[in-house]
UniProtKB/TrEMBL annotation:
<dbReference type="InterPro" id="IPR004839">
    <property type="entry name" value="Aminotransferase_I/II_large"/>
</dbReference>
<feature type="domain" description="Aminotransferase class I/classII large">
    <location>
        <begin position="34"/>
        <end position="379"/>
    </location>
</feature>
<keyword id="KW-0808">Transferase</keyword>
<dbReference type="InterPro" id="IPR004838">
    <property type="entry name" value="NHTrfase_class1_PyrdxlP-BS"/>
</dbReference>
<dbReference type="Pfam" id="PF00155">
    <property type="entry name" value="Aminotran_1_2"/>
</dbReference>
<keyword id="KW-0663">Pyridoxal phosphate</keyword>
<dbReference type="GO" id="GO:0008483">
    <property type="term" value="F:transaminase activity"/>
</dbReference>
<dbReference type="InterPro" id="IPR050596">
    <property type="entry name" value="AspAT/PAT-like"/>
</dbReference>
<protein>
    <submittedName>
        <fullName>N-acetyl-LL-diaminopimelate aminotransferase</fullName>
        <ecNumber>2.6.1.-</ecNumber>
    </submittedName>
</protein>
<keyword id="KW-0032">Aminotransferase</keyword>
């Protein structure tokens, strides 16, 4: 007695949270030394040199103190100009933009600001596994909508029956992780018409907005009636290959940002000053840094897509992000069984679809954030595997 763990006193909501399925598979894969992994959700390109130099300069100049809670004013100005120029979004640098530690923390402060216990949050499945635990920690109730037979898109028609008077928020993640799908102009317009007169927030996670291949990015916040109820989440992790710098941001009307910034302040005070100086460089002198990466991703997407189609796999050609999400249903294996067998027999690692909610069952996620040589070897092995099944 007296020195025993107080396990029973740990917050049950935290105890119930599961380690992400992507992390689990990555841990498992690391035990197979010779495996080719296609599991990673981060760009394989290095952070551009000019951004590294800006960070080095910030360190040399001792610009290493706290910054204002919502971020350096110059950075918020740079974000404001970047999103205006790229996507036509108008947000005031002083009152409507918060610089966060990655898109992850942007999601956290947003959900904590808008959710109360019992609030329902719509999640189109399959979906990035980062949202559900955050919703649960706020006492919110995740309500999944199965988008598998709808091209992995949450359309107004599919969403409408799920809206109740408890619905507080709809999360949209397009371009999508894990499917790479993007909502069309018409689909966005229909969604806006459905939601404009409802008391529902929209969180639009646009972290892959710079990685759309066939059309310009369009934010739902631009549509009539949507600006006041939408919180746009974005950041530099994918656009500038800066996952480890931890820079994200929120775009939200002043009446919301005013409260979100309090959560942010007590949560992290501010994002890293050095990373913020690097981000100013990225968003001013590096506004098109994503373009050469995008050209490379398009080649890889086309290559892997053609190979998978050649193997007889059923899949939609993704319009953005760097993932493909083929169906493996016809093999009569669960996505976990398929993944394990592929890993054991051919030493190729992918993520089982059920890591993206139960609505990802029947699929696997293949990341093409890898060099062509890796992708070629992986596809040869996968073809041999599929032939033998
Ligand atoms: N949203 C989505 C859809 C993502 O895929 C990721 C990262 N994989 C994040 C948010 C988190 O981004 P960050 O690293 O900037 O926190």
């Amino acid at each position: 007695m007296g020195n025993e763990p107080l396990t029973h006193l740990i917050n049950p909501q935290v105890k119930e949270i599961q380690i992400s399925g992507i992390r689990k598979i990555s841990n498992l894969v690391s035990t197979y030394k010779d495996a080719i992994t296609l599991t990673i959700g981060q760009p394989d390109f290095p952070t551009p040199d000019h951004i590294l130099r800006a960070a080095e300069q910030a360190v040399a100049d001792h610009r290493t103190t706290y910054t204002p809670n919502p971020g350096l004013p110059e950075l918020r100005q740079a974000v404001s100009e970047f999103v205006q120029r790229k996507y036509g979004l108008n947000y005031n640098a002083a009152s409507e933009i918060i610089v966060t530690t990655g898109a992850s923390q942007a999601l956290d402060i947003t959900l904590r600001t808008i959710l109360t216990a019992g609030a329902e949050v719509i999640l189109p499945g399959p979906i990035y596994p980062g949202y559900e635990p955050l919703v649960r920690l706020c006492g919110g109730v995740p309500v999944y909508v199965d988008t598998r037979d709808n091209g992995f898109k949450l359309t107004a028609k599919l969403l409408e029956p799920y809206l109740t008077d408890k619905t507080r928020c709809v999360i949209l993640c397009y371009p999508s992780n894990p499917t790479g799908r993007v909502m069309s102009e018409t689909e966005l317009a229909d969604m806006a018409r459905l939601l404009e007169n409802r008391n529902v927030f929209v969180i639009s996670d646009e972290i892959y907005s710079e990685l759309i291949y066939d059309a310009p990015h369009r934010s739902i916040a631009l549509l009539p009636g949507m600006r006041e109820k939408t919180i746009v989440i974005n950041g530099l992790s994918k656009s500038h290959s800066m996952t480890g710098w931890r820079i994200g941001f929120t775009l939200a009307p002043a009446y919301l940002s005013e409260h979100m910034v309090k959560v942010h302040q007590y949560n992290v005070t501010c994002a890293s000053s050095i990373s913020q100086y690097a981000a100013i460089e990225a968003l001013t002198n590096g506004i098109d840094d994503a373009l050469p990466m995008k050209a490379e991703y398009v080649k890889r997407r086309d290559f892997v897509y053609d190979r998978l189609v050649g193997m007889g796999l059923e899949l939609v050609k993704p319009e953005g992000a760097f993932y493909l999400f083929p169906s493996i249903r016809r093999f009569g294996l669960s996505s976990m069984e398929f993944t394990m067998k592929l890993l054991e027999e051919q030493r190729v690692a992918v993520v089982p679809g059920d890591a993206f909610s139960t609505y990802g069952e029947g699929y696997i996620r293949i990341s093409y954030a890898y060099g062509m040589d890796v992708l070629e070897r992986a596809m040869d092995k996968m073809e041999a595997f599929v032939k033998a099944l």
